[in-house]
Design brief:
This protein has 218 residues and is mostly helical. It has one domain. It is built from 9 helices and 3 strands; from the N terminus they run αβαββααααααα. The chain has a 3-stranded mixed sheet. Helix 3 crosses helix 4. The longest helix is centred in the C-terminal third of the chain and has 24 residues. The termini are far apart. The relative contact order is 0.12.
Length: 218
């Protein structure tokens, strides 16, 4: 299953294993997801992490629309990632990223913000897509792909001004950080220092992440 493969990828990439399987927390029906989040505005997005607090615990559900998963079954991105399945691949990866990041930090008794989830997901998407496309021989120029990845983007209007601003800020900082990665580590996955940098950054707090991004660009 694609989602399980993505979870293994993130676990290995960041050397951050977790005890829970993403498939055990997955729902794919929009009506079920809405029923689990009745107090929220109805949103048209195809992925979201649903959190409910109960008895000093947090119940987690990951919603990814069945259409997305069906599309990726028919057009396997590990066989060929291209314009036909890239968007759905990034939607699925974003969901797994949110799930994995939240669980890993909870295991280490660390709180995370929604901004952190979005920031890390944007980085995960760029790094993973770049790695896969290079393995498939689709791209040669990391910086050119960076420009298209972070520039050719639209933000869905879900009626929540605060969340919209958060997505834009997360994308802004992720673009800066990923730009620094392409310049500092042109060979990327073939450089151990690149992997070490990703793992270091993954473990930083929100403020530490922002300071780190600003420092490498100064």
């Amino acid at each position: 299953m694609l989602l399980a493969a993505l979870q293994r990828h993130l676990s290995q990439l960041y050397e951050a294993p977790i005890e829970h399987r993403v498939m055990d927390f997955l729902v794919t029906d929009a009506r079920t997801a809405q029923a689990l989040e009745p107090d929220q505005n109805s949103r048209s997005n195809s992925e979201r992490l649903l959190l409910r607090e109960s008895d000093n615990a947090i119940d987690i559900t990951l919603y990814i629309d069945d259409r997305v998963l069906t599309s990726l079954t028919n057009l396997n991105p590990y066989v060929q990632l291209d314009c036909r399945n890239l968007n759905d691949f990034l939607i699925a990866l974003e969901g797994v990223s949110h799930f994995h990041y939240l669980i890993w930090h909870a295991m280490h008794a660390r709180q995370v913000t929604q901004f952190e989830l979005e920031l890390q997901a944007e980085i995960d998407k760029f790094v993973t897509a770049t790695l896969l496309l290079k393995q498939q021989g689709t791209i040669d120029d990391n910086e050119q792909f960076h420009d298209s990845f972070f520039t050719d983007i639209t933000f869905a209007d879900d009626g929540d001004v605060q969340s919209g601003q958060r997505y834009r800020e997360a994308n802004h900082y992720a673009a800066k950080y990923c730009r620094s990665l392409t310049r500092r580590f042109p060979a990327q996955h073939r450089q151990p220092t690149f992997i070490n940098e990703l793992r270091r950054f993954y473990r930083l707090s929100q403020n530490e992440k922002i300071r780190s991004i600003e420092r490498v660009l100064s």
